[in-house]
């Protein structure tokens, strides 16, 4: 008579253990999923910063297949395509990001950036127009300034550049772009001032140094400014100044500057040598 009771007790215990096992497995799986989300988030950050851009593209494409609704993965793919210098594909990727229900204003800014990199200036202008005026970021106004430049809307460009400068702690690049805008308009004196400000904020910005030389040369000022420069940079700037002098019709001055560039360069300066030979021939 006791056996059935014993069997029933065993079955009940087995069922209880089974239930405990199922609960434990469920909790463990959930815990692993939580860990995987953290690990994946860290991996996403790594792929977007230090990873090879093309490898990052493959990673995000593969991740997106398993997580088609995750906007962070879509953003990662679009950003990786920009880093990999594949702007046409990036435009497509960013368009899908902005179509996502969780998209925000910064996504539209990045979409406009991709369009500009792909040469689609008119479309970038339209995208920027859809961003609310309350979305005030450095990148937004820098792009607005560039688009205004492309449309030769000079007053708007100046206003946007000024706003962008006030929204960043590293305005060197903005001052350089603004200066180049003035250079293309023929306002060489103002361009010179802006390039000098760019160098003041970023003494390693060689593009601004070279542009400064162009602005000075356009005013027939053939002396190097007092700015931080390495010996190789000095030679390259003298080369630029020499070519600018030749373009202005001051050929003898150009030859003198090219000779100085060749003497200044710590190694053989082939470009300057070739330019001087062409002039002397």
UniProtKB/TrEMBL annotation:
Region forming the signal peptide: 1-21
Classification lineage: Bacteria, Pseudomonadati, Pseudomonadota, Alphaproteobacteria, Rhodobacterales
Listed Pfam families: TPR_19, TPR_8
The TPR repeat ranges on this chain: 235-268
Domain of life: Bacteria
Protein name (Swiss-Prot/TrEMBL): Lipoprotein
Keyword DNA repair: no
Keyword tags: Signal, TPR repeat
Organism: Pseudooceanicola atlanticus
InterPro entries reported in the protein's UniProt record: TPR-like_helical_dom_sf, TPR_rpt
Keyword flag Signal: yes
């Amino acid at each position: 008579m006791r056996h059935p009771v014993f069997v029933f007790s065993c079955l009940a215990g087995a069922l209880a253990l089974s239930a405990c096992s199922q609960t434990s497995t469920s909790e463990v799986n959930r815990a692993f999923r939580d860990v995987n989300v953290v690990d994946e988030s860290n991996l996403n950050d790594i792929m977007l910063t230090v990873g090879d851009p093309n490898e990052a593209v493959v990673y995000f494409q593969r991740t997106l297949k398993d997580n088609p609704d995750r906007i962070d993965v879509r953003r990662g793919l679009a950003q990786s395509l920009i880093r990999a210098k594949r702007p046409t594909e990036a435009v497509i990727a960013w368009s899908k990001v902005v179509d996502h229900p969780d998209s925000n204003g910064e996504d539209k800014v990045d979409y406009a950036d991709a369009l500009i990199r792909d040469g689609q200036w008119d479309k970038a202008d339209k995208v920027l127009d859809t961003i609310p005026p309350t979305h005030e970021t450095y990148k937004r106004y820098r792009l607005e300034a560039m688009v205004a430049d492309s449309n030769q809307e000079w007053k708007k460009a100046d206003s946007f550049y000024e706003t962008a400068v006030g929204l960043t702690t590293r305005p060197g690049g903005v001052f350089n772009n603004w200066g180049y805008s003035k250079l293309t308009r023929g306002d060489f004196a103002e361009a010179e001032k802006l390039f000098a400000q760019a160098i003041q904020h970023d003494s390693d910005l060689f593009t601004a140094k070279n542009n400064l030389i162009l602005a000075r040369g356009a005013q027939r000022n053939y002396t190097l400014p007092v700015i931080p420069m390495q010996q190789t940079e000095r030679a390259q700037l003298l080369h630029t100044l020499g070519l600018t002098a030749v373009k202005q019709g001051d050929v003898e001055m150009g030859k003198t500057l090219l000779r100085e560039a060749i003497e200044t360069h710590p190694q053989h300066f082939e470009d300057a040598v070739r330019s001087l030979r062409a002039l002397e021939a």
